[in-house]
Records
---
Amino acid sequence: MKEKIRIGCGAGFSGDRIEPALILTENGNLDYLVLECLAERTIALAQKRKLQNPELGYDVLLEKRLRGLLPLLLEHKTRLVTNMGAANPIAGAKKILELAKAQNLSIKVAAVFGDDVFEFLTGQEHSIENNQPIQSYGKLVSANAYLGVEAILPALETDANIIITGRVADPSLFLAPMIHEFGWELDQFDMLGKGTVLGHLLECAGQLTGGYFADPVSKPVPELDRLGHPFVDVFSDGRGIISKVEGTGGMISEQIAKEQLLYEVLDPHHYFTPDVVADFSTVQFEEIAFDQLQVSGGGGIEKPETYKVSVGYEAGFKGEGEISYAGAHAVERAKLAGEIIEKRIKGQITNLRVDLIGLNSLHPTELSKNSNPYEVRLRVSGMCDTMEQAQLIGEEVEALYTNGPAGGGGARKMVTQVIGVVSTLLNRDQVKPSFQLFSV
Amino acid sequence: MKRLADIAHSRAGDKGNILVLSLIPFDEKDFDWLVQNITADRVKKHLQNQLQGNVTRYVLPSIKALQFTCEDALAGGVTTSLALDSHGKSLSYALLEMEI
């Protein structure tokens, strides 16, 4: 068993930048690289691609991310753990083999699956959010359980260079290599809690090195244009030291780590994952050297008895239209334009929303009341049952050019099919994770 | 007039229709003042048009930070909201506008 391993995080969401993972693998001396690319809704969209073509349904950027990364992973003996399998980890694994073959690389990929529980659902299961039967939300399109380390560990025990999963709890992508290398037991919840703290800190990649933190006035961060992504040296006692590749942009600091520790955490005393209920309230940070932050403390208690399942449903079509006004009476003209649209289509689209971008679109509160901007942009949006209805919103906004107030410019229109997501719970015995090896 | 932004920073996160706002003093000496003054009620009142549901505050002395968990705060949540910022990511700076 090892005393220390190094894990880097080269992507923190599906649209993350490609380059930081290459730099981490080339110069980070990593044992493991994690790419976390699966948001709540991403998998439902991937499911739709899989339905159209059974060879698709993995992350749309998989080829772009992995083509350049594959030779580096092999050269530096870094194992990759990623959830880029999305709705189709097996097809994702096959695509990776194809990429390797084209470069004459010999590689072994483990595809972890079993998170897709769509066929086990009746539709009668109640949502966590509103306690309504999930089928009442709309036509269901996907259901994926958040798997934990138990799904990843068997794949790590093989000699696979790459482990590609579908829906897995984000911190589990990091915790699994720790358990594998340190021999922690699955009921050592205190250790699993500490490891989960580190996984949670790393999982958003650049958010731990100054991204989503920077404010040039109150929180300056150097060289965001070359932002490096973080790695952590994890010790077998559960401590970690967070750092990044020397010479990359961004920085490591206690302030940043505090923000990220609490990011998206509903209750810092009870952070639920499939592996443990972690306690973040006892975590301690210490800046021990330039760009080096020690993380200690944290803990956990027994894991939940159920798996959380993310259910995607068809939620209709969102129509949007925008147009800008500037100069004298810009706000008044934009307001008039909004009133015109409301009068014209409110009868057909009941949940119309009217914002003035530059005035109150982000915070329609008292805070925005007294502002008087030089230019504002009217934005009208509505949720509709059909695409035709949704199109009407943008069409009416565009028609303001010749039918609305003076000086409207830059009209744009857009329609999006909306996939909603609700959650429900499933007993552990209903979910059976498994894996399959592929090599070339 | 001083604002929260002068003494603290914040990061917003979302889970479904729930908004999570951290509040962290630049100087740890200001932590006790924040604990005494920035209550869940005050945050709810400050963002009253945005926050429809309960606000729960967590006090974290170990890292000298506060966390506010705000229910029913994101017009349905990121997947179906009509808001321009459907995640509510910019709301950290709305919290920091609070006059103190």
---
Amino acid sequence: MHSNHLSSSLQIGLGFYYVILAIMNFAFASYQSKILNKRQAGIWTTVACLFLVHAVANFMHLGWTLSDGIKQSVDAVMNPVSYFVMAVAGLTAFLYWRKFFTEPVVAWTILSAGLLFSGWAMTDATFRAIITKPDNVPIVMLIFSVGYTTWLAMRKAVINDARIAIGEAPLEKLEDDKVLVWPDLVYTELLAMVICTFILVVWSVVLKAPLEAPAASSKIPNPSKAPWYFLGLQEMLVYFDPWMAGVVLPTMIIVGLIALPYIDFNQKGNGYFTFVQRRFAITTFLLGFVVLWVVLIVLGTFLRGPNWNFFGLFEPWDPHKTVPLNNINLSDYVWLFGFGRSMESMGWFMRELPGIALVLAYLLLLPPLLAKTIMRSYFVKMGFIRFFLLVTLIQFMMALPIKMVLRWTINLKYIVFIPEAFFNI
Amino acid sequence: MAIGDFIRNSQVWKSIFRHPAPRDRRNRVVVMLTNVFLHLHPVSVRKSGIALSYTWCMGGITFFLFLVETVTGVLLMFYYRPTLEHAYNDILSLRDVLTLGILREMHRWGAHAMVITIWLHMYRVFLTGSYKPPREFNWGVGVILLVLTLLLSFTGYLLPWDQLAIWAITVGSNMARATPLLGYEGPGAKFLQIGGVELIHSGSDARFLLLGGRFVGETALLRFYVLHCVAIPLAVALLIAVHFWRVRKDGGISGAL
């Protein structure tokens, strides 16, 4: 116990945090007893009491801190590979066992465990410094709101899919009668405006907007980060040059989003939550939005420190941390290691021919191959233009994970490397 | 009550509200038709369409936050001058001198929240398949609104003119110099030349257009200020009008058929 590590105000703050968690769990327990689930009611009363114990301990300034052993083991398993792989695995598991994960009790368990861990993690100075930076507060909100909405949408989808399977209409169809906008909608809108104003005012009073030292073009901060909503793009700079990560891929995201309604030929699932009727569309979108956008923003905000190095949750941001970079290009693999030939006398075209051929094959040969084989039914239904647009957009989306895996497995730097023309892929 | 009746029977009151209070069905319909703001809505909607668990209210909140940003933004413009000499100090005085000074906080946190709510709005629209026919076009309008919202936030990020601002914008705008053909470090730009003179160099490329200079300086501050306070909000307001109008024309809030 290092009681001297924690300030009094932090412990009082944590005390109130645990009181809120206790109240939430008592409420959940009383809900469970109301729906006559005695066992669950007992469990969540116990959990609420556990939070109360935490609250008392913090109010009494016992100085409970997360043990160094746990911190070190968390940091030890965290790196860009494990982080990303776990995110993909998590999404896959969530979709595959969606019936299980959308049970309120399961979701509540995950939420409570996450909040308990956050409370303990707050006792660590490094974690606290990053998570409470005023401009990082939106990311915390983003994590919870995307988590909650994903759960809510999938829960409704699971219920609707079960109904559709036995020939009933989705839930949204049940309340099909019309109501007057005044009062049913305008009052909801008024209430929403009042609540939003209240939240925004409280947020503004509690948290000052950040203001750092005056701008100085000679003092470059390390790390230099883009605004938080672009940190997913900044993370792509690890794997791609700026022309890809900063221009081409963002453009493809915008084009892809606009093209989406014209590509998606599936007429089912319009106006209600479903998963079964739109497996491909929803899985692809979740991979793009939740993993390749939100998860990478969280990575860029909380886990990327000086020199854009990766730092675990409790790892201090050491500007002198060095990570060996021994990435090599595809041309090295082919000519040096494959044929044992020096590339010095080669022109750029000959040198990069393998890479160029590979990229062209990926973009031009893969779509027809897919159309002939595993995606044949799509091709038949969608027609030429729609199909090629779809496959090309997905190819650009998958370019990031493909490059990630190549980097992690064979230390590949560039597939095509033509610095003479700033053309590196 | 006599005073209340006197007011409601006065010529002034009747000139503003053309019908009795919306207490019965007829007047609840009429109120929606005689008020320009309420007239954005239809008179009646499907009950499931306005359920909070269905809409998440995120589009409405995004619009509300846009209004909050407009009001606080106009107020901030009274205090802020976009020059190297004044910008930072004006922000300092907003914090230290202004009574009840939470204007900048409301503007900044509101902007962050707006980015999140617009994402969640699109997330909901996607997950309920509400972009499907007949709403394909309005989804596209929404995507443009998303891009404009991000640009609004990005241009506003520079205005405090502190270290956070200038370096975030430097990181972001550095991408522009890698634009294919149009950025001087972008692929293909070197091939754009006439008689050996390069057309695209650091003083003529996409980044220069964005910043009005070769680095994030006074010209960039002015450009971002004008884009942030005038150009982009006007475009957003225009597209919001289209977006809302198309919601109505494309059959209102989506729902199971």
